[in-house]
Amino acid sequence: MPSDSESIQTSQASECFLLGLAEELLISILLELGPADLLSCTNVCRVIAEVIEQTPAVQYKLQLGLSGMVDGPAGVAPLGKRLERLRAYRAASLQCKADVKVVSMPDCCNLWRLTDCVFAFERRGIVRMVRFASSFTGITEGDIGHLDCTKSITDPGFSICDCVIDRAQDLAILTHVNGNEKPLMFLLSISQGGAFHPLANKPRLEAREALVAGYQAEEVIETCVLNWKTGQVVWEEGKQQRYTNDDHLCCHLLDSSHIVIVDNTQLRIHEVDSERREPCSLTSSSFALELPPLNGDRSVCGVRSATQLPPTYHDDMPYFRHDPLATLLASNLVAYGGHPERRVLEQKAFLILIPVSTMLAQARAMKDLDTATPAVPDHDIDIVPWKYWSHLGACVLELSDLSWHNGCQMQTMGSQVMLTPHRLFRHVAEYIFILDAHPLARALPQPTPAGSEDSQLWPRVCSENHMWFADPLPNTLPCRIRPLSLGPRDRKKRDGPEHLALSQDCVLGLKYVW
Fold first, then answer.
1. How many domains are there within the chain?
2. Which domain, by its residues, includes 506?
3. CA 482 to CA 95: how far, in whole Å?
4. Which InterPro entries match (predicted)?
5. Closest by Cα among 50, 34, 31 to 42
6. Does residue 73 lie in a domain region?
């Protein structure tokens, strides 16, 4: 065993060696490391920690990782300004400061949240798209454009049911459903004010009846992926005849070549090729991830899911943005236990957070025959149990307050999830919660006052051996739970926002103007 004096001499020798390196060389080495490695270096070596703290470029990279962000397209902006904004954003998050910006919008109009700060208001066939300013990222407020739907849609009974835009491709997709008629999708150009998109071979698409039959008992449902430029179906799944009102089926995009279908308690992941000329269904890369199974006689009575990939539109010029691989798929699961015949039931609501990186990592593992994860046999596609894939990164939270069981409002943006209980609209002090889950997230202390009503609202990370689940819950994804108090609210006086929306770095409160 070395003596204390020998240890001191060794430490001094190491310090001299590090200080002997040219500063430019040491900084170059540090810039090659990822944020997690930089954080480890600050914990094990004081000299490197000082260099990181004193070097804005290295500090910016570390702060990006701690915030779950990546650099934005505004790389020409001064580094000092970007670092200042990023530090301010982190400080506001860690101090739980409520940053709710209330903006006004015209009354008697339909509203859609499109991407991040962009919203659409529709009245009498005219759609106005507005980008609201972002607090820290440098995104400014401005008009995106107007869509005059009467240019392309002549049906007098037309009404917009949904609106989706892709500004990078100058594309707006409007969906129309009229009674029992087939739903229609219209592919319009944003820059041309609502004219049919010139690159769309079939600007008016007739969707199949089965696409909207998922919420009708004893009906069929079918999922397909289209190439919007050609109108060609590049991936489709056969009809299913087992869905009822209580079932959940929703398709989400993971990246340019993978989709995930949330089928109740299974996440079915499929690879798609947008250049295919013929429809493809199940492929060798199709598999399903099972959510954690419930214990004993407990059953699932409701599932909802949400995800939102962060926008990458270059002209917005944000200093930083959410890491696409850290984007969360949030699955809200409501379960009950007891004896339904006796009407003695106990309900619990849970929130399962799974990043895109976890699902794509499992997709790569399934492609590699040597390292593929064990799967359940005798199924059309491989089913991977929870205990075999959750170590890649996942988190399960319990929503203990009863108001969650009726279905909370759930919005996502990148690695963040905003939960709004239905009790928000009472005129009492209420909370909303921002959950931020990514590899370098740091948990905040949770209040535990006995008998406090607010403490019952707080979502809590489940213990590893939770009594409601049959398998352990390793919770391998750090999650920071941030409460935001909206203060007293009275809807009759209209003194607060009518709608809340999660943006890149703040909460937008939207209020109608009379």
1. 3
2. 295-351+393-514
3. 9
4. F-box-like_dom_sf (IPR036047)
5. 50
6. yes
In angstroms, rounded to a whole number, what is the distance separating the alpha carbons of residues 235 and 104? 41
Same domain, 345 and 455: yes
Out of 177, 207, 237, a domain closes at 207
Same domain, residue pair 124 and 66: no
Dig out the tokens for 28 from the structure: 């170059």
- State the amino acid at position 482 in one-letter form: R
Residues 6 or more apart from 12 whose CB is under 8 A from it? none
Q: Which amino acid is at 437?
A: A
CB contact set of 487 (below 8 Å; sequence gap of 6+): 429, 496
Q: Which tokens sit at 367? A: 């492609």
Domain finish residue from 207, 241, 270:
207
The DSSP-derived string for 179-209 is TTSPPEEEEEETTTTTPBPTT-SSSEEE--G
| 70 lies in some domain | yes
Question: Which residues have C-beta within 8 Å of that of residue 96, sequence separation ≥ 6?
Answer: 444, 482, 483, 484
CA 319 to CA 138: how far, in whole Å?
6
Same domain, 426 and 311: yes
Domain identity same for 8 and 114? no
Scan for tokens 């707006």, then name that residue: 172
Nearest CA-CA partner of 179 in 158, 152, 195, 163: 158
133 CB contacts (<8 Å, ≥6 apart)?
101, 117, 139, 140, 141
Contacts of 429 (CB under 8 A, 6+ apart): 485, 486, 487, 488
Do 55 and 147 have their domain in common?
no
- Residue 234: which H helix or E strand, with range? strand 233-243
pLDDT band at 43 (very low <50, low <70, confident <90, very high): confident
- Residue 42 and residue 120 in one domain: no
Whole-angstrom Cα distance, residue 396 to residue 409?
Answer: 18
Q: Which residues pair with 106 in a beta bridge?
A: 513
214 occurs within a structural domain = no
Domain annotation covers residue 373: no
Q: Are residues 27 and 135 in the same domain?
A: no
| Residue 454, both tokens | 């607010």
pLDDT digit string, tens, across residues 243-286:
565 678 888 889 888 999 998 899 999 888 877 777 666 555 68
Can you give the pLDDT at residue 153?
Answer: 82
Banded pLDDT at 113 (limits 50, 70, 90): confident
pLDDT tens for each residue of 455-476 = 556 788 998 989 899 999 988 9
435-450 confidence digits (pLDDT tens): 999 999 986 665 544 4
3-state helix, strand, coil in the chain (%, to 5): 25, 35, 40
Reduced to 3 states, what is the DSSP secondary structure of residue 434? strand
Asked whether the beta carbons of 58 and 29 are under 8 A apart, the reply is: no
Q: How many CA atoms lie within 13 A of 30 on its CB side?
A: 30
Tokens (6 digits) for 77:
């902006």
Same domain, 443 and 317: yes
